[in-house]
Structure formats: structure tokens, C-alpha cells
Amino acid sequence: MTPRRFGLRARVIAAFGIGALLLSLLLSAVTYSLTLGNLVDRRQSDVRTNAIANAQGINEEVFQDIDRGRLTDILRRFDVPEGSHQGMLHLGEFYWTNTLQFTDDQLPTAFVAEVFEGTPVEMTFDGTEAVYYAVSLPLPNANASASYVQATPLTDVDDTVNGLLATLAGASAVTAILGLGFGIYTATRLLAPLGEVSAAAEQIAQGQLSTRLDEGRDPDLDRLIVSFNGMTSALEERIMRDSRFASDVSHELRSPLMTLTGSVAVLEKRREDMPERAQVALDLLSADVRRFKVLVEDLLEISRFDVGAVELDTEEVLLSEFVRRSLHAASGGTREVPVIHEAGAEDLIVEIDKRRIAQVIRNLSENADKYADGVTQARIARDGDGVRIELEDEGPGVPETERELIFERFSRGSEGGRRGTSTGVGLGLSLVVEHLRLHGGKIWVTDRVDGLNGARFVLSLPDVVVDE
Amino acid sequence: MIDHTLGAKSGSIGVVETRVLTVEDDDSIRTVVKLALEDEGWGVLEAGSGEDALELFRTEGADCVLIDIMLPGINGFEVCRAIRRTTDVPIIMVTARSDTHDVVAGLEAGADDYLTKPFEPKELSARIRALLRRARSQNNDNASMSFGELEVSPDEGVVLLRGEPVHLTKTEFKLLVELASGPSKVFSRETLLEKVWGYDYFGDGRLVDVHVRRLRTKIEPDPADPRYVVTVRGLGYKLVP
């Protein structure tokens, strides 16, 4: 299907508008021509009746060899429609009641020829100022070739018709506008369910998988709604099943991991009594059991995000103390990282989920341990009602092409794995993103502002500052 | 190694051995926890089900109980409540997850502390030690203190409300004594976690909240509108004289 240039809405509105305009134009044209014909006919028949009556009246008053002056007097005594001109052909010469306004020059030659023939004749013709309707009737009492001529302008018909034309044009315009309005109304009504569907789809895309549309409002729309809801349910079930699978697997792994952890602890108690080769094996075992544990914990945590079974458990903490302690704990209690406060950030109390943000700092710290030589400096800054925590290291930094990639699950950047075997599994930074997102915050990585080598991770937590 | 030697010694010189009742339906876990706890110097009683645990506790008793929440038959919460009805022995719940629901339900059922699987045996040992130390450390030299109709005697381990003794668990008692040590002074959750449970800064604040809630139901005339143990928003708790 080729894409259409105009949307459905525009097309519906245009169809209604143009349809209404065409229909009203057609109606107007028919009305116009019918009315015009009717009016002209009636007017002509009036004029004809009048002319015939006049001709008969005049015929009775005239006689052979009547002179010209008498003729004009007789003509004037008969009423004619307004604006009409009266004349007479007598002895091969035309006489007009008002020669200043109308003479036989203005009559078509065909009409004049008929008058000379002495036959009754009528004709509609375009005069200099208006359309005229002319009638000529013979006057047998006067002379063999005498005729009465009456020419009546159809101006009043024209006026009526022009008025009608204006009215019809106005009516057509109004009808077209009404059609346009109706088109807009219909299109809006018609497309409203489509808008709801797209709004629902948007919500679903944003992760609100439980979004559904109401059914049973309109039998025509129900098919769409039912299939939309069906699709959403299937999608939700699928996603939930995947997430639940990850969660279930992690849970199932906890029991064997408990046995492994306990057994390794029991073995480690007796490490000194073991042969050297067994010691090496035990060290490998215990290191990997620890890694395994972290992986399972992280998987479980992240699957909880996927299922949507997470909630913030916030409490108020003194930010600088919290950051200092978090970094200290992240290093296993071996290192103190200097925490620098920007102006106004010295005694900030923030409301955060301590466990989650501590894990964020721990994961970032462990990341720095892995790729650089640990976090070298932390900076706290106030940012409106939120805060920014910046962690810097003196490692190689993060190449610009990988600055978004490193926060993806199971990615560890091109430098990953270069530090021996103790690499993470790449869930740490994606968890950081999730924890921060739950707080409405975000994280990004840049170069250090002082231009030295190293990465600078910036955590932004909006609306967490508690004002006293 | 030092712990191991000390543990062995305390057992051998005839000091009454501290016994931990481990309730766990998974044989491997139960066995390894027993091995590890014995390495740390504790005596261990094992139960594979809630029913066995209650029977064993009734006949043998224990100094501390470790309960897995997910048990077939009567579950961990019920075992916990049943034991709590008759004794104030320290109880540690073992959960498979750290969600709010399980943890709070466990604490509400009367547990003093909780651990999430998989835990390090050293951590378990530290938790047991902290709970027992607390339970045994009532003999400080504080004289009895009065707060309105509430009277706390740390020496005797007695709390009187309008002259009537109030039955508190050891953890609740320790919490009350800690708060009473500085009347009107605000104790942060972190401080209480450290003093009462032996946790560091990153301990779970819910432990404090749930225990304060339980303490209130026992000593407050109206637990919903506490008169003694008052919440100071954003800071912690204090005991009002």
C-alpha cells in the first residue's frame, strides 16, 4: 500500500466539506434554472396577456386613415408594465410614445421584418440596457399593414434572479462550512477510539503492561478493542513469564548456593591442614562461589525490576555521611575516599532508599576497582531540589562510543576482562541504572572536568533534598 | 581458627554449651549449617520440619532458634509465633528473599533478626552472638528509671506499667533500655541498630521500626498515638519522660 499524503482525519473532513459544497451547488443550480425559467415564463405570459389586451383595445379605437397624432394619444391611454415602450407600425413607419428612450433601431431586424410582414410575433432579446421581451400584434382596423409593438424590459426578473443567485451562493457556502464542521465532528468522533488505542499502546510501551481498553461500548469497535486487549494480555503474560523465570531460577539457585557457601566456609576453616594443591583448588572454588552469589543476587534484583515488583523504601540520611560510608564499605572497609562538597551541599539531608543507593555506589566503586584503581574522589553538589553525586577515578576513562553501552546488561566494554579473572558479569551498572530510575534519577559518564585521565560517573537524583 | 579453638574450648571446659536449634527442611543446607555452626563453637540441634522443631524445642529447649520460613507443613512464621508464645528466646528468620513482605512478616511473627540465603556462616555466628550478648547484658548498673506510669529496671530486667510487669522479648527490652539511657534524646535507626543488634551503618532500618511497633503495642496506652516511644520524623526515635 502506498502511504497516503493526508491522514484519515484530513480526508474525512475534506470529503464532508467537498461533498456538502458539491451537493449544495448542484441543488442551487437546479433551483436557479427552475426558478429563472418559471419567473421568465410568468413574466412573459403577463406581458403577452397585457399586450394582447392592449392590441385589442387599440384596434377598436383605430380606423382607416387615422393620423399619427391620434395614434400616439390612443397608445398612451393603455396601461403597460413599468418600463415598457409602446410603438406602432403604421403605413410602413414606426411611431414610439417616447422616441428619446426607445426606437425600432433597438429591435432585432428579424423581429422588425416579422412586424412588416404583419404577423403576430414575440421575441426575447438583449437590448442595450436590459433584456427585453417584445410583442407585436397586427391592428386590422387601422390598415392592412399596421401593428402594435410593445417592448418590456425584464429588469425586475433579473433583479429577482440576481437576489436568488446571491442567496443560493450564500446557502452553498454555509452548507459547505456546515459540512466541514460535521466532517470535523465525525472525524473526531470516529477517530477518538483510535486515539485511545494509541494512548494505551504508548502506556504499554512505557512499561504499564496492565493497561487495557474498555470493551462493550460499540460493537463496531469491539473487534479492535478485543484484539488489542488480547494482544496486550499475551504480551504481558510473555514478559511476566520471562521475568518470573529469571526470578524463579535465582530463587532455586539460592539453596545450592547456601550449601556451597557453607561448605566452602567449613573447608576454609581447615585450609591450613590441606595439601597445597587442594588449597589452590579451594581458593578457586571460594572465589567463584562468591562471584556466583553476586550474580544470583544481581539477577534476582534485576528480575524484580522486570516483574515490576519493586518499591522504594526511603529514609532520610545525611548525604555526605552516607556517601562517605558507602564508599568505605564498598572498599571492604580498607579505603577512605575524599568527599568534596560544592557550596550549599555540606549538610544536605536527602530522602533515598539507602540500600539501593548504597548498592549503586558499591557497584560503581567495584567498577572503578576493576577498570581503574578505584574511586579517587567523590563530589556532592546540590541541583535544585535534587543532588548530584560524582565519582571520579584515574583510570583510562570510558571511550565515547561506549558511554551508553556500558550501562546495558551483560556488557563490559572493550576493556572488559583485562584485569585477571575477577571480572564482574556486567549486571552491576545496569542495576545502577534501574535503582536510579526507580528514584527518578539517572547516571551518565563523562571525562574528568580537570582534563586528567579518568572517568567521571555522574549520578543525578532529583527531588530528594529534605528542607528543614 | 581462633573462633574454632575458643568454641572447642568452651565446649570442653564444661561451660554450658550454647545450643542453636536449626529448623531447615533441606538436608544439605541443614547439615552444612550444623557443620559451620559447630566450627564457630555452637552446639546445634536439628529439625527438618516445623512440627519436629516445636517438639524438640519443648523437650530440649535452645538458646537461639534459626528458622527457615519456607517449610513444608506448618511454616516458619507459625513456628516463630508458637515459640514466641512461650519464650523470649532469640529467633533468627532465614528468608529466601529480602522483599519487604517476607522480612516484615517474619519480624511481626516475633523474630529478632533475619538473614537472607545464601549467608556466610560467619555472619550467622555474628548475629547469634549479638543476640545472645544482648540477652545476657542486662546487668549494667543503671538504676531503675521512671517514665510516667512506665518503670524500667535494667538491673532486674523488669518493666512495670502501672505497677504491673510487662512481658517483653529480650530485643524489645534491650531497645527500651537503650532508649531509656537517654531520655528525650533522639536515637537514629543506625545508632539503635548498632547498639541493639550490632549492625553497622547499613543495617536494615525495618528491624528497628518493627520492634518499635511491637514494643508500642505492649507499653503504649494507644499504640497509634504513642506517648512514650515517639517517632522523630527523619531522625529516629526517642523516649519521652
| Straight-line N-to-C gap of chain A | 63 Å
First-residue to last-residue Cα separation of chain B: 47 Å
* Biggest sheet record of chain A: 5 strands, antiparallel
> What's the overall geometry of chain B?
globular
Q: In the CATH scheme, what's the topology name of the largest domain in chain A?
A: Beta-Lactamase
How many separate structural domains of chain A? 3
Number of domains of chain B: 2
Low-confidence stretches of chain A: 416-422
> What is the SS-derived class of chain A?
alpha+beta
What topology, given as strand order, has the largest sheet of chain A? 2-1-5-4-3
CATH architecture of the largest domain in chain B, by name, is: 3-Layer(aba) Sandwich
β-strand percent of chain B reads: 15-25%
CATH class of the largest domain in chain B: Alpha Beta
Largest interface: A-B, 32 and 29 residues
Compute the number of helices of chain A: 9
CATH fold title of the largest domain in chain B: Rossmann fold
Averaging pLDDT over every residue of chain A, what do you get?
84
> What fraction, in percent, of the residue positions of chain A are helical?
40-55%
The CATH class name of the largest domain in chain A reads Alpha Beta
